[in-house]
From TrEMBL:
Active site, UniProt feature: 378
Lineage: Bacteria, Pseudomonadati, Pseudomonadota, Gammaproteobacteria, Alteromonadales
Name used for this protein in its record: SAM-dependent methyltransferase
A Pfam entry, by short name: Methyltr_RsmB-F
Annotated Gene3D superfamilies: Vaccinia Virus protein VP39
GO CC term (a single one): cytosol
Species in which this protein is naturally found: Shewanella mangrovi
InterPro entries: MeTrfase_RsmB-F_NOP2_cat, MeTrfase_RsmB-F_NOP2_dom, RCMT, SAM-dependent_MTases_sf
Keyword match Transferase: yes
Length: 436
């Protein structure tokens, strides 16, 4: 905006315009580089320490709001030849749809965009859609537009809950965590004293920490290794593994180690005194992070063995249990990472499925007779989940598929998907097999 017009702005308009410049620059960086928005905004705040807590919240929540509603926002007509009024209008609509508390900033965005402000009584995604259609009667906004078209054909054929799925994707999930080496009720009391909205979760060690951002380094339980952040859907995987005392387990795609730590914690709860967990990944940085977390938690029974190439990095037929939490399209995490909806396409699903089958087939060789093989992804697509398992079983008749009980609905299934709307969580898939 020309400096002449900048002189005519009110103080609140100048502040709103400053936010706009920052938020849009971050938005465009994510779209151009396809980097994870969490990483982009973390790098920005690390390099720009001038922002206070309120500024950081407005910037962060507005940025993620743009991605959350981008399926609608990208349909708004451009104003003349200037992109700036459109961006201001998109920020105003985002703040309205999400009912952000910084109303004076939202009104300033509308004023700078030269668009009228309208009161909105928005309770859910349906009322949000109704309100937006009323503002733009010549346009046609639908719920399905909030999800890329390419996803729908890739979901399981019997999936018929689009509206509740979309509703979940448009709501921020709580921060889920696990306790370890400590009593959960005592942990909840300690967290509440820190003004953290901690509540018991469905598993004996799970808890919700609410929706507010938390500086974990100021939480003693976390610093002492008694609290681990792990989404509830991810926690289901460890519960399905059901590691028993004194077993040996291999986490074949450990990443930063959330599930390795969960396995160790579950073994400790069961009274294990001679259990062993080997964790492997192809990324040294991720494994280094796991080493730090294991040390903080006091788990000395986790050892690291990196994948160097396609050769099995552990002895064949030597583990009671093998967990393959395979690299995937991460469509199950779109609720927590709304930017990923618009950065990926169907190609990543097909590419992931090919890699997943390859990893699963190789890792299965490490399972001993009568041992357990667990396959998991944070995807909700049928190609990466059921189809990978079925292809694997066709090629490996020495494994049988086991029946699982859905932890939240109680129904029996051999292909367990945790949908975001079922547990106020991410989406996750898991199948459990036994070597004959």
């Amino acid at each position: 905006m020309h400096s002449f017009w900048n002189l005519l702005m009110t103080p609140i308009e100048k502040r709103a315009f400053s936010y706009t410049s920052t938020i849009i620059a971050l938005f465009e960086e994510v779209m151009a580089t396809k980097k994870n928005a969490d990483r982009v905004i973390a790098d920005y705040f690390r390099a720009n320490k001038k922002h206070g807590a309120k500024d950081r919240r407005i910037i962060r929540e507005s940025l993620f709001g743009l991605f959350r509603w981008w399926g609608w926002l990208q349909r708004l007509p451009k104003m003349a030849n200037d992109i700036q009024p459109l961006r201001l209008q998109q920020l105003y609509i985002t703040a309205t749809l999400e009912q952000h508390p910084w109303q004076e900033i939202a009104d300033a965005w509308a004023q700078l965009a030269q668009v009228a402000t309208h009161s909105a009584d928005i309770e859910d995604v349906v009322s949000a859609c109704t309100w937006l259609n009323a503002q733009f009667p010549t346009l046609d906004f639908t719920l399905e537009q909030l999800v890329p078209d390419w996803l729908w054909p890739l979901l399981p054929e019997d999936f018929n809950q689009r509206q509740v799925f979309i509703t979940a994707l448009c709501q921020r999930p709580p921060i889920w965590a696990r306790t370890q080496h400590t009593n959960r009720d005592a942990a909840i009391s300690e967290l509440r004293e820190l003004d953290i909205d901690a509540k018991a979760g469905p598993f004996a060690d799970s808890l919700s920490l609410g929706n507010k951002s938390i500086n974990l380094q100021q939480v003693g339980l976390y610093r002492d290794g008694k609290l681990e952040i792990q989404d509830l859907a991810s926690q289901v995987i460890g519960q399905i593994c059901q590691p028993q005392p004194n077993q040996t387990w291999w986490d074949a795609c450990c990443g930063a180690g959330g599930k390795s730590l969960q396995l160790a914690s579950l073994m400790a709860q069961a009274g294990a005194d001679n259990s062993t967990i080997v964790a492997s990944d192809i990324r040294p940085a991720a494994m280094n992070e796991l080493a730090k977390r294991a040390q903080r938690a006091g788990f000395s029974n986790i050892s690291l063995k990196r994948w160097q190439d396609e050769t099995l990095p552990v002895p064949a037929a030597s583990f009671d249990g093998v967990l393959v939490d395979a690299p995937c399209s991460c469509t199950g995490t779109w609720r927590r990472n709304p930017d990923q909806r618009w950065l990926d396409n169907a190609d990543i699903v097909h590419q992931s499925a090919t890699l997943q089958l390859s990893i699963l087939s190789r890792a299965a060789a490490a399972v001993k007779a009568d041992g357990t093989l667990v396959y998991a992804t944070c995807s909700v697509t049928d190609i990466e989940n059921r189809q990978v398992v079925e292809q694997f079983l066709t090629a490996h008749p020495e494994f049988e598929l086991l029946t699982l009980t859905h932890p939240f609905s109680g129904h029996q299934t051999k292909f367990l998907t945790i949908w975001p709307f079922e547990a106020n969580s991410d989406g996750m898939f898991v199948a459990k097999m036994r070597r004959l």
